[in-house]
Amino acid sequence: MGKWTIPSVVLLLLILYAVPDQGKKSQANAEADVEGLVDPPKVEDKIGAIPHGLSTDSDVVKREAESMSKRSLRSDAEKFEFQAEVSRLMDILVNSLYSNKDIFLRELISNASDALDKIRFLSLTDKEILGEGDDTKLEIQIKLDKEKKIVSIRDRGIGMTKEDLIKNLGTIAKSGTSAFVEKMQTSGDLNLIGQFGVGFYSVYLVADYVEVVSKHNDDKQYVWESKADGAFAISEDTWNEPLGRGTEIRLHLREEAGEYLEESKLKDLVKKYSEFINFPIHLWASKEIDVEVPADEDDSSEEESSDSSSSEEEVEEDAEKAEDEDGEKKPKTKTIKETTYDWELLNDVKAIWLRSPKEVTDEEYTKFYHSLAKDFGDDKPMAWSHFTAEGDVEFKAVLFVPPKAPHDLYESYYNNNKSNMKLYVRRVFISDEFDELLPKYLNFLRGLLDSDTLPLNVSREMLQQHSSLKTIKKKLIRKALDMIRKLAEEDPDEVHEKDKKEDVDKSGDEDEKKGQYTKFWNEFGKSIKLGIIEDATNRNRLAKLLRFESTQSDGKLTSLDQYISRMKPGQKDIFYITGTNKEQLEKSPFLERLKKKNYEVIFFTDPVDEYLMQYLMDYEDKKFQNVSKEGLKLGKDSKDKELKESFKELTKWWKGALASENVDDVKISNRLDNSPCVVVTSKYGWSANMERIMQSQTLSDASKQAYMRGKRVLEINPRHPIIKELQERVVKDPEDASVKQTAQLMYQTALMESGFMLTDPKDFASRIYDSVKSSLDISPDAAVEEEEEVEETEPEVETKESAKEDEDSELKDEL
To answer: What domain of life does the native source organism fall in (predicted)?
Structure first.
């Protein structure tokens, strides 16, 4: 027992000695931890860091730095190939020599705004979709990293899933990709990129490596990256700070794009292109502020020794007296300049449509149009209308007439549901694909409508059936047509001659408005015509906007009102003619008598004009008359009855001779002057021009066209020498074969001159050749001389050796 006592005591003493020491160490560690919590270390202490950003460990920072420095796709990422059209577009942009590279920022901001619009719309029915904290802030943030040459644009929009990243940014080209590439190669206008839905790819104008970090509520956070070398990669993001929701695009700038690392440059671009974006745009910007800090004693002593002027001594004495009076001495301080960083709001302009039209300048309207239409060319919109509707339905709207027609305005016109009107309800963006606000013929207008009447939380189908929608549509159409009418009224070229004399002294801004309506008509005239066809309610209003050339317009466009003002006394009808072009119509035999009597005839040369005139039957109580059809009245002639009677035998004989040609009748004409005859159609049948249009249709049915083809009537000129001679020969011998041949040939010639297609061109050619033979006194039975038969020999095959020898000899000759 005694031998174990001493060791046990020693062991116990050792344990008691160790426990207090360990306790002291634990206490020291705890105190150190507490001190560390007072001022914890921050990864983003450096200038330019996001204040509320999450930190990352040093290993992640190191891996990111290596990836950025190498500018290479991450090895563990899933690789994809770009769709062919996207690769073609990117090649053009990467190697672009275009000077206007500024557009990349406006395109990214526009895309960010669209993403924010989508999440805000979804939040109307599901408030939890916005999340909590900073995720509820619908904003766009721009940040610069001058050291790494990175520009970041972040939004808290809807975000993209992995599938969205693949679909939207790589493998499947948007429908406008190839169209944009073709347009850019022909016109070289890079400003159009936003209108084709491929604006994202403009990043490669300034960057050689792009990262897109995105988080959608329904998926994990992913990173899309590409060097614009034909491939891109996507990987699950485990190293960046969690976005919560939204997208951040990081542009690793090229060497020559360093100017975009300047805050002033980005501020100018946002003001120029994105001033009217509906979400706040913030820039992580620096600013200098004055800060008072305690003055060092050494500094104050040096200042006192160096300052020896009497005035300064007096100031110090006054200061000392003041301190004595206060009873306490203030510490000495000095003011220094300190650079701080904070989020600066760049677009603080109130929405234009919420302001009074009197407060908005023309320049602001132009900027707003460019932002709305994603058209950043130099051209101003032709016209705009800013108005507020009150009453049962209240809304504010802004409508614009674009300076140019979209490239695909009339492609798939009836199958295209595209709308250029943005619909807002109580300042909340609802949709830009709602095509019920304006009819199809006005789909060229750009605009925005903000309604306080329509409900927010409804589906598109329910919105289409809402009772207020018809009233809104009706008011929008009226305002749109008034805007176009005003554009015509303010154009000096549209003013009547009598009004021009009264307005000689008015010059002002007339030069700017001169020719504007002609420009409008050349771009959008077809839409007005389609409106007359489709919109019976506004047909008369639209008819006032019609423009065309005529026999008396001297190559300029004229209107129906101007035509009526020039009508001859007693003229009851508005005369027009349809055809392929003005030059051809001017030589038409249908105009001979009308021109001679100084009647004005309208030229309709657009294929849609044939359909137009089927709906526009009259204007201001004046009927329309196609001068190539039956029913033309030019006043009564006392000799008409006598002529009809004297040529009765010829017309009856000629109708019988043309029985095989399906001619309905042969009549004396009141429209010819120099031509012997012409072929007209029945009043309600197709004209020659309409027949040609229908036959050229891809899916036309010839069997059904026979029902609509007008009955043909041969009209003859009783004063023409050919007709008089033909009458005499018919009276002498009605069975004369040569006379029948001549009558048949004249009909076919008149058919061609009247614009019809010959059913048997070979027969017509044979008759011409027979006529030529007769004029040259060649016997009708004269045969073509037979060709002598010659044995055909196979051509010699030239060997390569002989060909080479020939080339060598030719080369020697040249030397």
So the answer is: Eukaryota
In tens, the pLDDT along 639-681 reads 778 888 889 999 999 999 888 888 889 999 989 999 999 999 9
- Give the neighbor-by-neighbor strand order of the sheet with 333-345: 78-81, 231-236, 221-226, 207-215, 246-253, 150-155, 140-145, 281-294, 333-345
Q: How far apart are CA 90 and CA 204, in angstroms?
A: 7
- With tokens 């644009």, the residue in question is 153
DSSP 686: B
Q: Which positions ≥6 away from 166 have C-beta within 8 Å? A: 80, 234
For the chain, the maximum distance between any two Cα atoms, rounded to a whole number of angstroms, is: 172
Alpha helices in 39-83 (DSSP H): 58-70
Query: For the whole model, what pTM was predicted?
Result: 0.67
C-alpha–C-alpha distance, residues 799 and 549, integer Å:
65
Q: C-alpha 789: how far from its chain's center? A: 66
The SS3 assignment for 574 reads: strand
Specify the 3-state DSSP secondary structure of 445.
coil
Q: Are the beta carbons of 161 and 219 closer than 8 angstroms?
A: yes
What string of DSSP letters covers 53-108?
PPP--HHHHHHHHHHHHHT---TTSEEEEPPHHHHHHHHHHHT---S--THHHHHH
Give the integer Cα–Cα distance in Å for 543 and 617.
11
Task: Centre a 10 Å sphere on the Cβ of residue 243 and count the other Cβ atoms it contains.
Answer: 20
78-136 tens-digit pLDDT = 887 776 667 667 666 655 545 568 878 888 888 898 889 888 888 888 888 888 888 88
815 vs 813: CA distance, rounded Å: 5
Structure tokens at 755: 């614009």
Name, in order, each residue with C-beta under 8 angstroms of 780's C-beta and a sequence gap of 6 or more.
Answer: 770, 773, 774
Is pLDDT of 571 > 80? Answer: yes
Nearest to 591 by CA among 674, 513, 649: 674
Nearest alpha-carbon partner for 267 in 197, 153, 347, 341: 347
Number of other CB atoms surrounding residue 256 within 10 Å: 8
As given in the structure block, the two tokens for residue 441 are: 């013929």
Distance CA 64, CA 28 (A): 36
CA-based R_g, the chain, Å:
43
Distant-in-sequence, close-in-space partners of 303: CB < 8 Å, separation ≥ 6: none
Beta bridge partners of 638: none
**Whether 78 contacts 234, CB under 8 Å:** yes
Q: How far apart are CA 198 and CA 607, in angstroms?
A: 34
CA pair distance 704, 671, nearest whole angstrom: 31
Written as six digits, the tokens of 400 are: 């614009």
Sheet with 677-681: list strands edge to edge.
663-668, 712-716, 677-681
**Phi and psi (nearest 5°) for 76?**
-90, 5
Dist. CA 778–CA 547, nearest whole Å: 54
Poorest-confidence range of 57-61, 348-352, 442-446, 791-795?
Answer: 57-61
d(CA 260, CA 266) in angstroms, rounded, equals: 6
